[in-house]
Amino acid sequence: MNIILFGPPGAGKGTQADIIVKNFKLIKISTGDLLREEMEQKTDLGLKIKSRMDQGKLIADDIITDLITKIISEKKSVEDIIFDGYPRNLNQAKILDTLIKKYNQRISCVLSLDVDKETLKKRILGRIICTNCGMTFNKYFNPPNEKTHDCGANYLKLRSDDTENTINSRIEIYTNQTLPILEYYEDKKILHKIDATGEIDKIYEEIRGIITSLET
Hints:
Blueprint: E1 3-6, H1 13-24, E2 27-30, H2 31-40, H3 44-54, H4 61-74, E3 81-84, H5 90-101, E4 109-114, H6 117-125, E5 127-130, E6 136-138, E7 156-157, H7 164-178, H8 180-187, E8 191-195, H9 200-215
Parallel strand pairs: 1-3, 1-4, 2-3, 4-8
Antiparallel strand pairs: 5-6, 5-7
Helix pairs in contact: 1-9, 2-3, 4-5, 6-7
């Protein structure tokens, strides 16, 4: 089973992907993680990626495709994968279909997390990450406290690309370039839309029901 988890920045894709991976024993491929790893290595490519991400721009298709192809080709079995943050436009969706067909696989379902713009902004602008333990908090919905975080306030940082201008740019790009993918997968009858404005557990329960129905 191969799944695509789809949604605008701040929709909670990473959170839901981690829960799905844990409960269904899938392998997560996150373009966000791959890009950040490249930036941390401070390669020429990593610096170019950082510049575009800081401006809220999408990374070129050929860069994303190379990263995804490399990861897929290194795996012994191309199945039971959840794609988080890929594809981001129609061209990437078609490229992904071609890639997995090489291994006689297919996309089983696409889960689209829907969230209104104002909620997205609060989720992103309020996002706080601990550079020591990696935990993520939100000053509006889930602020860190002594019971939930003991690394110290000096480790709590905002992401460099979490600014209002960047958010507006990313949402605009998503609306104009990424949403057309919904029609592509809807035509394939594998698209499932999910209201992702509620509690994490309730959102996951709906997702779990969809995935479980595919296994029967």
